[in-house]
Amino acid sequence: MNPIFSLTPSDRGPVLRIREQELSSALTISLEITGLKPLVSRGELVAKGQQLCVDPANKLPSVHSSVSGKVLDLKKDFILIEEEGDRLAEPLKFNNSDSVSMLSDLRDAGIDVHGFKQGCTLIINAVPKEFGIDGHRFLIEEFNHIMSEGLDYLKKAISPIASAIAVPEGMAWTLPGCTGHEIDPVYPAGLPPMVVKSVTGKEMPPDVCVIDAATLYRIGRTVHGKQPVTEIMVKVGSTLFQTPVGTTVGLLTSKAGFSLSDGDRVLLGGPLSGRAVYSLNHGISASTQAVTVIHGGDDPVAKDSPCVGCGECVLKCPARLMPNMISRHAEFGFFENTQNYFIASCFECGLCAYWCTAQRPLLQYIRLAKKELLDKPILEDLRK
Amino acid sequence: MKPISGSPVLTVSSSPHIHCGRTIKGTSLQILLALLPAAGFAVWHSDLLALRVLALSCIVAVIAEAGCLKLMKREIESDNYTALLCGLMFGFLMPPSSPWWLIAVGSSLSIIIGRMVFGGLGGEPLCAPLVGWAICKVSWPELMNFDMSMLTSELTYPLSQLQNFGPETLDEYSLKSLLLGFQLGGSGAAQSGAILLGGVYLISRKIIRIDIPLAFVGGVSIAAALFYTISPVDYALPVYHILCGSTLFGAFFLATDSSSSPVGHFPMIAYGLSAGILVIIIRVYGAYPDGVPFAILLANLMTPLFEKIRPKPFGGITNVHLQR
């Protein structure tokens, strides 16, 4: 099997603490705040764990400072904070009275609670999303009690009818109160829709919530310490780091031993579903689990070439779609037609574009069509 | 977030950020490589006559494609070798003694009518080399008749022997001689053993899937076996149908042509089976001794129908997930 599709967690190595690596100079962190409203201004002193931004629409989780320091710069999308002093924010208050306020407390503490519903089936996804994104192995094995504390809180908040934990085959990971399910560790089995199918036997049922193990740990840590999580586990290449939220990818990649040059790519997440950053000063967010470096070649990954009809994408698609036809329609702006090919069933694993003989940007076309079909089209004149 | 001086300029892309490395050019080169042994055998059996046919056919195809792309004001893409491959496959189907103008007309029509009028690479609804072949076959039947055009050769054309004199004539061909290409037929297409070798190579390198060749040969065998069981005196053994003419060339190289064949396991198998069965039906009832090219063309026409056979998409036939 192709090793990049293997989801079997690697053996646990040592955990590198960025704090111990960077003693000489003050740490500068960069927090991404796209779409959020900042609560601080430039030059202001902030405490560790202080809330910096909130979403006015109450959808996105808020962002907290992971260090005690001074706001160096405040841009539309980023806050830069330089470490200074030793201030600590007031402990969070959790209102345990009802589900809605319990979830909104979590959101205020920086946890994404989008899609959590009352009375659903709760699935803890402990299968790595992609090859090498297995930093949560350390958390499950060492901090099981923290995770069960988070699970208890979550169970109180959404009162699930059943809870299950999905683990990669061969791993004896358990959580109290969860039925275990072993999953064949081959990509894309770790993506939420596939995990839901393996556990419930149903495809895209409406009443299931999936939460990954690292997020459950963050819930547990938040509830346990009454402070937002400021330190997270991030896998950079094959090195596991414990690092403050907002640590720049430049620092992480250099500590992990990568030397970067022009044309390289740095991704938050894995190579098949991660997000590329444009600057080494980009800080990791609280939900980042891995940083991947791809050394650049001269050729772009995708090309503007016609579909030759080899059918590889159709045979590889785990959602049994026809990415070839969807992309052919999306390419020329016939976005409505893509619904006849059930575009909504796509869960964006990226295998179609990975295997495309013509190197077409298949998943990119699918995402474009989805975006155009939803409420906020980004292209309107392509059809004219 | 300006890049500070000295920090590298990163490339951004949207996921997936990696590719398996397979390209159109690499695929066509692999298929060309798989065709080489058969081309060698063809040249050997025809005393260099086939070399002339194959070379001319390749050159004309590449020039025709480049000319069309120029007219269409598009970038010349001869360096992906697909036109070369199309020309070579057309040459494989032609008698080694064909006059130069027949090759030139057929090869250029393969590219122009088979491919470029449909928008170029990837648009072909029919296997392009077969389009040129069919035009030649219908327009100049005497030149395309292997027995008449290859009178000087000591070899004979087993399929016309079968059609004219019955299955007992096939006894003079040993399986070994058929595999080694001691038969008349398309210059390269008649080299059954070398074609088989190339086909197995393509499958082992995962350039083509096994579904279509297997179903094609299966269809030929089933239909031929059916006729043979009805009357062994009137019909030939399935193994002769597989080794004579261009059956194997059709199974491994023509039927698997990427854009004219269906996608998905079940459609591929249905397509291969119907093409294989049509081969025998044409050979038994038709006017043409070798039914392979027309059988594949007919199956190509059915491709859109076969592609209607689709499994249910993940989550059922609905687009409600889009709203979530």
Task: List descriptors.
heterodimer; A: 384 residues; alpha/beta; Rossmann fold; six-stranded mixed β-sheet; four-stranded antiparallel β-sheet; 11 helices; 17 strands; 25% helix; B: 324 residues; mainly alpha; Ammonium transporter fold; 14 helices; 56% helix; globular
Brief characterization of the structure:
The complex is a heterodimer of chains A (384) and B (324). Chain A has 384 residues and is an alpha/beta fold. Chain A has helices at residues 18-21, 99-108, 136-142, 144-158, 192-200, 213-225, 249-255, 312-316, 323-331, 351-355, 362-373; strands at residues 15-17, 28-32, 37-38, 45-46, 51-54, 63-64, 69-74, 78-83, 121-125, 162-168, 179-183, 208-212, 231-236, 239-244, 265-268, 275-277, 290-294.
Structure write-up:
The complex is a heterodimer of chains A (384) and B (324). In chain A, the strands form four sheets. Chain A has a six-stranded mixed beta sheet. Chain A has a four-stranded antiparallel beta sheet with strand order 2-8-7-4, with no helix packed on it. Chain A has a four-stranded parallel beta sheet with strand order 11-10-9-12. With 384 residues, chain A is α/β, with parallel strands linked by helices. Chain B has a single domain, classed as Ammonium transporter fold, CATH 1.10.3430. In chain B, helix 3 packs across helix 4. The interface between A and B is large, with 76 and 51 residues.
Question: How are the secondary structure elements laid out?
Answer:
The complex is a heterodimer of chains A (384) and B (324).
Chain A: E1 15-17, H1 18-21, E2 28-32, E3 37-38, E4 45-46, E5 51-54, E6 63-64, E7 69-74, E8 78-83, H2 99-108, E9 121-125, H3 136-142, H4 144-158, E10 162-168, E11 179-183, H5 192-200, E12 208-212, H6 213-225, E13 231-236, E14 239-244, H7 249-255, E15 265-268, E16 275-277, E17 290-294, H8 312-316, H9 323-331, H10 351-355, H11 362-373
Chain B: H1 24-45, H2 49-71, H3 82-93, H4 100-112, H5 128-139, H6 146-149, H7 158-165, H8 175-179, H9 192-204, H10 211-230, H11 238-243, H12 247-254, H13 265-285, H14 292-306
